[in-house]
Amino acid sequence: MSAEHPIAPPSRDPAAFAVFYRQQFDTVLGFVTRRTDSAHLAADLTADIFLTALEQADSYDARRGAPGAWLFGISRNVLASHFRGCARERNAVARIAGQRLLDDQDVSAIEGRIDAEREARGLAARHTALSEPLRAVLDLVAVDGLAVREAAKALGISAATARVRLHRARKALQKVVPQSNTTSTSVNVLLEAAS
Known about the structure:
Elements: H1 14-33, H2 39-55, H3 67-83, H4 88-96, H5 104-116, H6 118-126, H7 132-143, H8 148-155, H9 159-176, H10 185-193
């Protein structure tokens, strides 16, 4: 966002939250489509993230970080809960009952995003050798474009800890996929982005 259009802080007020939602929707959908290859699941998880953000809007504290970092923290938690088979999935199914179903155009648009993020998902599969704390920092900084300090806020750790984890992740990833491998262009780009 430019200085002319600062990111709106999250608010429980419907009109204010609508502004926040519009500003952050593409970012959140990108975060989700880099982590799943199902259009319907991506739509459900994106909706869950914004529902959780609306429910927790009163907990946002600008002194603890930017609205985007706060939303990335919520996004990570929602995705982690889903992939652990948590009760959130059952609640999401109950929430969408009676709602407009995705039409073919909606599905096509989300499938387009999934296709566009296919390389990022392939890259994510390559770095499974990293521990979860290292992957979390690497993903937020190199894949999702957060600054190290913002990633630290989203993860609830200090900036120094985030920098150490990022350094360790880069070193470990270099061992898994050597720089000379010509098929690992996306890995090299990731390593450069995390520098």
